[in-house]
Amino acid sequence: MALKIGRNDPCWCGSGKKYKKCHENFDAKVEMYRQKGYAVLDRNLIKTPEQVEKIKESCRINVAVLDYVENHIRAGISTQEIDRWVHDETVRRGAIPAPLDFEGYPKSVCTSVNQVVCHGIPSEDEILKEGDIINVDVSTIYHGYYSDSSRMFCIGQVSPEKKKLVEVTKECVEIGISKVRPWTPIGNMGHAVHEHALANGFSVVKEIGGHGIGLDFHEDPWVSYTSVEGSGVLMVPGMMFTIEPMVNMGSGEIWTDETDGWTVRTADGLPSAQWEVTVLVTEDGCDVICW
Question: How far apart are the C-alpha atoms of 85 and 69, rounded to whole Å?
């Protein structure tokens, strides 16, 4: 439970302003919603202005690394080559690839090709070929602050079905962004994402979702993209999380490879797609700070 702050004390957010001139009304509004039965985040997960600026520095590196991948990815390269790009470009900028050694993960990036839903491990033996789709998921630590985003890439000419999957998944993220509104439940956003995927004949993975980000790799809240309206934690200014639905061409069923303990694949062998952005909730919507 947060310590009580005097109205004339410095605000907990680090702005330097008196509490009564800064977050006193915010805290009162949060408490009002809490008493109405809404789930709310702990105060320590609401990012201060100083933290936001530090996280944005990490985001700039994350985006630059993905830009590098986008400019170099092509048929004929291995996913291990992508891992080398991500590692070298991240380190060259003074940062650390967040996935490397995270809970035993052996590489600096996740490369998920075709039917791999997420957490694909780069390999010298996996060579990209014409018609593949691949998600490259980059996460960065810079001066202790975390950023996270991913993009889909179509290798050469892909089938119309795969192209539609990639495009609709990106639309799902864009719809999710449009539904991030302060003082509304996060489930509203997830519900809108799910509805768009279903309307296009696709399914959304239920078991794996988004997460808070910034001060740690994975923070609260856990973010569902198959949620119902009115559910989930209240979105409030200063909250930060990822929008990253995993959309399957076939069923939403998945399985995890027991051999490596990481690679998640579709149960029916049909392709999956994912785009990921990080958003910061603002007073009137959100800012996309990593893409």
Answer: 7
DSSP secondary structure, 155-221, as one string: -SS--HHHHHHHHHHHHHHHHHHHT--TTEEHHHHHHHHHHHHHHTT-EE-SS--EEE-SSSSSEEE
Gap between the Cα atoms of 69 and 7, Å rounded: 49
Its pTM stands at 0.95
CA torsion sign for 158, 161, 165, 167 is positive
Contact partners, residue 140, CB within 8 Å, separation at least 6: 58, 59, 61, 62, 65, 90, 95, 96, 97, 98, 146, 147, 148
Q: Which residues of 28-67 are buried (b: 16+ CB within 10 A; e: fewer)?
A: ebbeeeeeeebebbebebbbbeebbebbbebbbbbbbbbe
pLDDT in tens, 238-282: 999 999 999 999 999 999 999 999 999 999 999 999 999 999 999
Is 120 in contact with 113 (CB distance < 8 Å)? Answer: yes
DSSP 39: B
- CA–CA–CA angle 247, 249, 251 (5° rounding): 85
Alpha-carbon Rg for the chain in angstroms: 20
Contacts of 18 (CB under 8 A, 6+ apart): 7, 8, 9, 10, 11
- 3-class DSSP string for 102-146: HHHCCCCCEEEECCEEECCCCCCCCECCCCCEEEEEEEEEECCEE
Give me the mean pLDDT over the 15-33 stretch: 91
Tell me the two tokens of residue 130.
């014409």
Alpha-carbon span 169 to 122, nearest angstrom: 23
